[in-house]
Design brief:
The protein has strands at 3-7, 10-13, 18-25, 34-39, 46-52, 57-60, 68-73, 78-83, 92-98, 109-110, 114-119. The protein is mainly beta and 120 residues long.
């Protein structure tokens, strides 16, 4: 059974940093890609970043390139999202996700989400 549990959200001032963590179980990163989505109030979910260990590929949304960094630890079964230079428009619920068909495809599994609020 795939399980995804996020942590690390919170309230931060613009320009600040946060590190999100996702503890996963039920698969390994050799078997599946993993990433982060976010959903701001009144908006559709959007992909933030995705890592494919099997393909040796990392994707970022244009809006976060240069500010966010995704990383993973297959042995510890953790995925991280380091978020720097945060902006108010980064405010959203952030979800750890697994797209069974790979990065860039619709996620099949979602964590419970963690709230990130960036004040101006």
């Amino acid at each position: 059974e795939v399980q995804l549990v996020e942590s690390g959200g919170g309230l931060v001032e613009a320009g600040g940093s946060l590190r999100l963590s996702c503890a996963f179980s039920g698969f390994t990163l050799d078997d599946a890609d993993i990433g982060w989505f976010r959903q701001a109030p009144g908006k559709e979910p959007e992909g933030v970043s995705c890592i494919s260990s099997s393909a040796g590929r990392i994707d970022y949304a244009d809006s976060v390139k240069g500010r966010f960094t995704i990383s993973s630890d297959n042995a510890q079964k953790m995925v991280y999202l380091q978020m720097n230079s945060l902006k108010p428009e980064d405010t959203a619920v952030y979800y750890c996700v697994v797209p069974v068909l790979g990065c860039g495809r619709r996620p099949d599994y979602w964590g419970q989400g963690t709230q990130v609020t960036v004040s101006s």
